[in-house]
């Protein structure tokens, strides 16, 4: 299957070739012909599957086909959950539409509204927006959605998670009923189905990977470690394995800031990205990370959602997310579009429940091990049925022996010790053997 089999126009095909894409990804192969036929779409696809091009390429073609001259009106509206994703989608629209006489704009919060008003007044064909800011424009009467022909809900599950349902409903009431609607979502959970049931017309269903399945291109591993030593272990891994670009997830914004500062003290260039940072700071951090002038980007789930960083090789879960689906989203930052990636989780005794929830969701056993010198004092049995108390290693004479400070220059100073899936009770021969 090649792009030229999908029915795209020559101008769009040229843009695809310029990007160096040779074959359509599975979501593109299925979605592009359906969108060109004018069908509504309900597509299950995560970031990294090529979904942005899957809706942008045929959307551009349909706009060109239906162009009628006259003043520019918003004819395609793309809603995304975050500012970063909105900016990235607009970048894709620009790149793929570089040969076409179409104008686009992105409107999102955290930046001044006036330049957006001016851009809208000058006229755009394609508007990429976050729901909150778009609602603001609707309230002010600075945007007219009455000529929208195609509407895309990108990462719809995330938009609902973020509480955007009322804003989305308001926006959907402002666009014509006769339109084409494309809904992309990583999961097809109940609320997404309800949304689709209300706003889509006989949608074509496309699912490229089983919802919640983790991508095979990502090697996953779990290191058990005490909470207090996570930062030290992370610095050690980055330094000893010579990782040049790593995205690290924390659960809280403060945690992200604190970790970025501690890593910087360890001599690792790091930046934090989360919802409390100004738009300027977030854009700068992302740019520095992409250009590899910053080695570690510490992010919260919301901020990282949809980030598109080419060939990101490493993702670290510094803390496991509360929602197991977020684990899948996080590790989806790596192993994209044909590249391999590695996702490591640093897990402490307090995180046994989150660990088990993830394990249940992805239904493949995660390899659990420890790193020499960082064996936890307090741990849990990854195979234990939920409800039983976690194993606690005794203090005092059970201290881990190898407790050297890691050197960042050393290449392979310590091995990673693979741990049997059954860890045994404390005091059992196996546990004693491990402590020795
Ligand atoms: P997305 O899932 O839209 O975030 O895309 C993930 C990455 O895949 C982006 O960096 C795209 O540039 C890239 N990509 C999209 N389509 C293709 C393709 N057909 N061949 C190679 N790379 C692609």
TrEMBL record:
Domain called DEAD-box RNA helicase Q: residue spans? 1-29
Comp. bias regions, Low complexity: 384-399
Q: At the top level of its lineage, which domain of life is listed?
A: Bacteria
Which GO biological process entries does UniProt record here? response to temperature stimulus; ribosome assembly
Please state every residue range assigned to the domain named Helicase C-terminal: 232-379
**In which family does this protein belong, per the annotation?**
Belongs to the DEAD box helicase family.
Q: What is this protein called?
A: DEAD-box ATP-dependent RNA helicase RhpA
Q: What lineage is this protein's organism placed in? A: Bacteria, Pseudomonadati, Pseudomonadota, Gammaproteobacteria, Chromatiales
